[in-house]
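anyone seen this seq b4? input:
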Amino acid sequence: MSMPVLNPYGEEVTTEMGATSPFAPVSLAGMAEPVAAPPPGQVLRSPFAEAAVAAGDGDRAAESADALLAELEDPGFTEALEALADEAAARHLKSVGTWSNDSEAPTLATADTTQWLEHLAGEADRILGALEAYFGDRPADSLQEGEIEAATGIDGFTDPADVQQLFFGKLLDKAKKLAKGAVKLAKKGISVVGNLALGPLFGKLRQLVKPLLAKVLDTAIGKLPESLRPLATQLAAKLRGETGSHEEELADTFDRSLAELVTAPDDATAAHLLAELQPSGEDPYAPSAAHELDSARVRLARELTEADPGVPPVAQLEQFIPVVMAAMPLIRMGVRMIGRDRIVGGIAKPLSQLIASMVGQDAANLLSRHIASAGLGLLGLEAGGGDATLGGEALAAAAEDTVRKVLTLPPESLENELLLETEIQDAFAEAAARHLPATVLRPELAEPGADGEHGVWLMMPRVTRPCFRYKKYSRVIPVRITRPMARAVILSGGDSLEQRLLDDGAEAWPVDGEVELYELLPGGGLGHVSAFESTDGPVAAAEEFEELTESAATVLAGNPRLAHVGHHGRPGRHRRPGSRYFRFRHHGRPVHRKHFLGVLFDLTAPQPVLRLNLVFGERDTHELAAHLQRRHFVQVVAIVRRLLGPAAVRAVEGRLTKLMTKHGITAEAGAAARLAQKLVDGVLRTVSDQLPAAAATLAKAAQDPAPGATLTFTFGFADRAALAAGTPASDPAVAIRPGRHRD
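predicted toks r here
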């Protein structure tokens, strides 16, 4: 044990085990005796196949489908769907902007986007058809490494920025996972899976791709989200509160459909399942709710500009409010209980009185000049002139936000006239402050940001007007961020802005940067934002944008009220109307998201297995290797512990909750939180016990051309009950691989 060391010159002081003092310029360091890790537990394995005690074919199929579902789990497949939807959405909106006829533009753009996705579906069908024909009746356990790529004539997908290559690559990964899962289940004695050869397995995967891409198209063109299988299972309903995007729900239900199709006990069940997956037969070119809202905004903006000054625009709002309601499917219960006409009338009259003082041509011109001045850089307008429609457009946007917020009230509040008028007054004041310049607002409503200026939210993109899909804050906010500030900005993946900046090469603090803010509109997605705001491709561009939480808005923009206006439920990448995002630029380039944490289940074995992947960037990998070489073991544990802070524990908890819900594992309240903490504690003990002996392996991973390294921690559980109770059999085993892995 080393003695404390004092250094009056502020130089870094470390102990024999590499601990570094936090004090400067005088450092004091020491360390306690290491605590021995608890002895590993024992896992008892039954000699009986689980299938031997199954109640019947139906129960056995359900059991095997659930186990196969865990094997098919792939976060990268969800991201491929998100990138595909983003690319399709961008193509659709850009196509809208090329047609001069506003009424026909959405239909023509939908035809363009449909043609592109049909070509993609055809190529995917060709690839999977080649697999089906090549492997034929070969047993699943005969598949060799690299055979799938050879059979399709594809030697790997080398460009991850290409959306089509990313999707095809993830389809091939899904085929590999399907074959691997079938082998595992066959070993358990599940004959319904064991009887399937590779060709039929890949053929079933092939049958699901076109229905999936049809739903991706619906998302891209702004139709209301639907599950891939709305009536087949309860999965979507179970996960609705946990999923972060419609694409994630599509990926989950795609996997469930594939697992149930492969394990169907008979042909009739499989045929019924396939029938459920077919398109509904609705007109694909019918206007979406988002496009109906586009037209309604234009109409209301024009009517407010042309209205008589001082006259409440009741009739205009009564026509507008139902269109907003149609784009809000979750408010149907309140409408059904109270009645649409009563709700419309109850909102339109008080809201029209609040707007009355700003209607008419003179007021619209006044607003337009001030908005143009506030949004010079975004709109390319001169301060003295501007677009005369901006004023009416801003009033319409404020009215829309007000209606949307008020409609989220419970039915009882909507029926209370006094309470409803109060809510309308407050909601409109907040909406006006977001969309109108400070010069026309009451002083207490104009809130300056970190730069002391009041910005406004502008409908974007301007080149596709009237088809707006997002808003952008009119000010690019300069910020000087210290390391503690960056550490306080927790991002959606559970990491911090500090870690992102370190991965981006930041070496000195504070860091100067700038922040841009965005908000999604109905029918909008990050693909629309990236298409018009980024020069990168849709895969990389979507990783530039992060959820604008209250803490991030406070630290980066100096105003917590700039955070989400329509956010409900768990934090995450919800991509819903009102969701807000920020982009942080450092050295003139955006900081990108890098996944560092993943959790997966393996339910095919008699004893469940949980894998936690901890992904290190290139910088941290070399730093870990250097500390291990110098035997600075405290620093090694400190780096891992820094990554696995409270935000990471919450991210693990959220992932566990979703996985348990998905696989029907019933746990008592708080079980996921307790298990998340146990997993992190087990990881830290294993790092302390095993990583010092793995210095050579980690050094080799650091030198590998693949960026970064992945540490995979494997936890075993005696059975599902132990998994639900959150009691691992022992501390995990750890494996080190070069590169960034999530499997």
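The chain has a mean pLDDT of 81. Residues 105-135 form the longest helix (31 residues). kinda curious what u guys think
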